[in-house]
């Protein structure tokens, strides 16, 4: 029996704002896109609360609901959105490329749009790994509820940390923000929000030595990196909000990337160094990383893929004429 291989014109890998916007454009261009949703269907916005900066929602919208809208729009226009993970790709040679889904299903893709996004970074200390899921979390919105009325700490000083600290402050008794420098990276507006929240304490020049506790978090030992002084803070929840890394590991043998793994696209386009392969969203954008910019680059990727396919088809028809 021969193995069935599915041939698709446009394969989209990832289901955040970039992937679904690419799907909307590709579907309307009649490319019959097949989209694999990956590990976290809907992407990072499904673990956030209010989105206030996406145009078109004057009263804001909850992240998961917004992603439902994206998906419904893409599906209504003809996208085949599927559960499943692309587990390997072979971008050697010319398209169509061999793509493996869930380590077994084979797809031959004439164009590939990569919108695999990014995942949370961790500090990398032993106690953080050991207590992950037992008091240590990288998602305040997902897990904050478990620490209702308790004291918690959050590491990080960017917009995410500031946003999550204010979110936790609404649920928890006391929030300690651990900031490694003498200032925050977060926007001024977010910093003001933190300063104006009475139950958030910010500790500057402070690094995490160890998360304390055997079977669950009981505290954190922190160190002042100016004085060397260590302090133990009793807490029940320890949140990490120190940024993200792009989910691009499966492409590393084929695509040009920067030293942190962001896919490099050609100027003013979503084209990668491989013919017929396009990248968008947080997998290639290390600067803006916003839902709206991800959606914008998703649109670019679909337009680039469509133009690539049309040019190829007209070349083929010329050579057969
Ligand atoms: P960022 O990369 O902006 O910030 C990461 C923070 O974590 C920095 O303050 C960094 O410190 C700190 N950090 C990194 N590694 C460590 C470590 N090992 N120990 C302690 N601290 C560490 O990531 P974010 O996720 O906050 O934001 C990503 C992007 O998303 C940004 O562009 C941001 O503006 C945007 N965003 C926008 C929102 C909005 O507009 N509503 C909401 C959330 C995010 P240091 O400053 O010292 O480098």
Q: What would you note in describing this structure?
A:
The protein has 321 residues and is an alpha/beta fold. Helices cover 27% and strands 26% of the residues. It has helices at residues 17-28, 63-76, 126-130, 140-143, 159-171, 188-195, 291-320, and strands at residues 6-13, 34-36, 50-51, 61-62, 80-82, 86-90, 97-101, 105-114, 118-120, 136-137, 151-155, 174-178, 200-203, 206-212, 219-224, 230-234, 237-240, 244-246, 277-279. The strands form five sheets. Strands 1, 2, 5, 6, 7, 8 and 19 form a seven-stranded mixed β-sheet that branches. It has a five-stranded parallel β-sheet with strand order 10-17-11-12-13, with helices on one face. A hairpin with a 6-residue loop joins strand 6 and strand 7. Helix 5 (159-171) packs parallel to helix 6. It is elongated and about 80 Å long. The site of NADPH dihydro-nicotinamide-adenine-dinucleotide phosphate has 17 residues, from helix 5. Residues 53, 123, 155-161, 163, 180-181, 185, 242-244, 289 line the site of NADPH dihydro-nicotinamide-adenine-dinucleotide phosphate.
Q: Give the SSE string.
A: EHEEEHEEEEEHEHEHEHEEEEEEEH
Q: Give the total of beta strands.
A: 19
Helices, by number, come to 7
Alpha carbon gap, first and last residue = 37 Å
Structural class based on helices, strands and sheet pairing = alpha/beta
- In the residues, how many domains can be counted? 2
Gross geometry:
elongated
CATH hierarchy: architecture of the largest domain = 3-Layer(bba) Sandwich
Q: Bound small molecules, which ones?
A: NADPH dihydro-nicotinamide-adenine-dinucleotide phosphate
Return the CATH topology of the largest domain.
FAD/NAD(P)-binding domain
> What is the highest CATH level, the class of the largest domain?
Alpha Beta
Radius of gyration: 22 Å
Overall pLDDT score = 95
Portion in beta strands: 25-35%
Low-confidence sequence ranges:
none
CATH homology superfamily of the largest domain: FAD/NAD(P)-binding domain
- Sheet bearing the most strands, described? 7 strands, mixed
Helix content: 25-40%
């Amino acid at each position: 029996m021969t193995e069935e291989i599915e041939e698709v014109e446009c394969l989209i890998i990832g289901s955040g704002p970039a992937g679904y916007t690419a799907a909307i454009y590709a579907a309307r261009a009649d490319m019959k896109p097949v989209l694999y949703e990956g590990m976290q269907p809907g992407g990072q916005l499904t673990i956030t609360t209010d989105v206030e900066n996406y145009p078109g929602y004057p009263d804001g919208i909850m992240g998961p609901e917004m992603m439902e809208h994206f998906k419904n729009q893409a599906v209504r226009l003809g996208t085949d959105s599927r559960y499943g993970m692309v587990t390997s790709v072979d971008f050697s040679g010319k398209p169509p490329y061999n793509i493996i889904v869930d380590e077994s299903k084979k797809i031959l893709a004439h164009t590939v749009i990569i919108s695999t996004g990014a995942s949370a970074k961790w500090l990398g200390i032993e106690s953080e790994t050991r207590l992950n899921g037992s008091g240590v979390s990288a998602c305040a919105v997902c897990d904050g509820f478990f620490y209702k009325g308790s004291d918690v700490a959050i590491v990080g000083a960017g917009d995410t940390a500031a946003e999550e600290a204010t979110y936790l402050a609404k649920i928890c008794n006391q929030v300690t923000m651990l900031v490694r420098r003498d200032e925050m990276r977060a926007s001024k507006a977010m910093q003001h929000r933190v300063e104006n929240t009475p139950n958030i304490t910010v500790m500057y020049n402070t690094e995490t030595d160890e998360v304390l506790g055997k079977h669950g978090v009981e505290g954190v030992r922190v160190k002042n990196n100016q004085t060397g002084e260590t302090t133990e803070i009793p807490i029940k929840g320890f949140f990490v909000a120190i940024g993200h890394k792009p989910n691009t590991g499966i492409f590393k043998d084929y695509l040009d990337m920067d030293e942190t793994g962001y896919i490099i696209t050609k100027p003013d386009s979503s084209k990668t160094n491989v013919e017929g392969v396009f990248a968008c969203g947080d997998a290639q954008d290390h600067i803006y990383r916003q839902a709206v910019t991800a959606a914008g680059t998703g649109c670019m990727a679909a337009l680039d893929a469509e133009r690539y396919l049309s040019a190829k088809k007209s070349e083929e028809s010329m050579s057969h004429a």
